[in-house]
Amino acid sequence: MQEIAGLPQLSVLTAGQVPPNPQELLLRSSLSALLAGVRREYDVVVIDTSAAEVAADAVALSARGPQAVLVARRNHTQVVRLHALSQEIAAAGAHVVGCVLNPH
């Protein structure tokens, strides 16, 4: 974990290089163990994923977390796709707790 200067209570674990098999890595039990350890250590854990339109990471990780926040891009994200994504995430086992509208 890396501490952020000026924010002593914030730690960041970066993804590193893009692996050749990201979906396979998301399904490994070692990820479950890592997430369990992080959740014991920190009050809030936020996992940022690739856009759902380009990768299935968000849905795959939804099965490992109790809650999800969707991020939509103004004048770009279609409401029907956002609704479908929220249903996919719910089917994976997470509860969608909100949505952020990003202007960029």
Notes on the protein architecture:
- The chain has 104 residues and is of the alpha+beta class.
- It has a single domain (2-102), classed as P-loop containing nucleotide triphosphate hydrolases (Rossmann fold), CATH 3.40.50.
- Helices cover 38% and strands 23% of the residues.
- It is built from four helices and four strands.
- It has helices at residues 22-27, 29-41, 57-62, 79-92, and strands spanning 2-4, 7-12, 67-73, 95-102.
- A two-stranded antiparallel ribbon has the order 1-2. Strands 3-4 form a two-stranded parallel ribbon.
- It is globular.
- The protein starts with a strand and ends with a strand.
Task: Briefly say what this structure is.
With 104 residues, the chain is of the alpha+beta class. Helices cover 38% and strands 23% of the residues.
Roughly how many Å apart are the termini?
A: 29 Å
> Mind describing the biggest β-sheet?
2 strands, antiparallel
- CATH class label: Alpha Beta
What strand line-up does the widest sheet have?
1-2
CATH superfamily: P-loop containing nucleotide triphosphate hydrolases
CATH-defined topology:
Rossmann fold
Key features of this structure:
two-stranded antiparallel ribbon; 104 residues; Rossmann fold; alpha+beta
What's the topology here?
Layout: E1 2-4, E2 7-12, H1 22-27, H2 29-41, H3 57-62, E3 67-73, H4 79-92, E4 95-102
Parallel strand pairs: 3-4
Antiparallel strand pairs: 1-2
